[in-house]
Design goal:
15 strands, four-stranded antiparallel sheet, alpha+beta, single chain, about 270 residues
């Protein structure tokens, strides 16, 4: 029996499996989830149309991979709440569901996701995960969530760790469609995209003008600087929240001698 050959074969198979999973993750379609990066204090009621809760349990409850993999939806969300019933997620992140469920640690949606069987699953805003078996990383603790996969429950929610026996903290998993976002096409002719207090995503299956748009302004003579006049035919509405001289004004013509009739001469420029 050649133990070295068996070990080499096992390592090779494992390496090929990881390579195939990486290729599958890279080939997954580009999906824009409702929000990007680490999210703190997310109201569950604010989740957009089509989002469904897949799993909820206290941190003291044992976690298995089937609990955290909805197997449906474009995106998923992992989060933790200290409330019962949960109203706000103290920490959460959205990710491309197919990529996150692919077993390969990776960056997606500006968050580092990992699932290590027999150890833990979670995400980190920095990527330097230390699974012992939950993520014990100290740097930027507020950006870490970790749930044990060794027959125990949750482990950490942000900077609060050793929560595997906690009945107060709760694990939550949601799934849903990709985000729907504001665009200029949503607005009417007399509106422009809202530039102040822009929402992260639209709540319904389509965006509405009320969510995305604000009244457009019209050119006035006050926009024009000295030496410029309001255009004879300015645009019906300005393109941005503030009208610009270039779209509203034109250079005022200068007086020339041919303008003056018989018995008149050109005024000096300083008059």
């Amino acid at each position: 029996l050649d133990l070295n050959a068996d070990a080499s074969s096992s390592w090779g198979n494992s390496s090929r499996q990881v390579e195939r999973r990486l290729q599958a993750a890279a080939a997954a379609p580009v999906i824009k989830c409702p929000m990007v990066g680490l999210i703190v204090g997310l109201s569950i009621k604010s989740l957009p149309w089509g989002w469904t809760k897949f799993y909820e349990a206290p941190y003291s409850s044992a976690t298995v991979t089937a609990n955290i993999r909805p197997r449906a939806g474009d995106c998923l969300l992992w989060g933790a709440s200290k409330e019962n019933p949960p109203v706000t997620l103290a920490i959460a992140a959205f990710g491309n569901r197919k990529k996150v469920e692919n077993d390969v640690p990776l960056w997606d949606n500006e968050v580092y996701w990992y699932t290590e069987y027999g150890s833990s699953a979670g995400f980190s805003a920095t990527g330097d995960v230390v699974t012992e078996p939950g993520d014990t990383g100290l740097y930027d603790c507020r950006g870490r969530l970790s749930w044990l996969l060794n027959g125990q429950g949750g482990y950490r929610a942000g900077c609060t760790d050793e929560l595997d026996n906690s009945n107060q903290w709760r694990k939550l998993v949601f799934y849903g469609p990709a985000g729907v976002f504001c665009s200029r096409s949503v607005c009417f002719a007399n509106q422009i995209l809202n530039t102040e207090g822009q929402i992260n995503y639209c709540r319904g299956s389509v965006c509405t003008p009320d969510e995305c748009c604000q009244p457009a302004r019209q050119c006035t003579v006050e926009v024009c600087a000295l030496g410029f006049l309001l255009k004879q035919k300015p645009p019906p509405y300005c393109a941005t929240a503030f009208c610009q001289e270039v779209e509203c004004c034109e250079k005022a013509p200068k007086c020339t001698a041919p303008v003056c009739g018989i018995g008149y001469f050109l005024k000096p420029e300083d008059e």
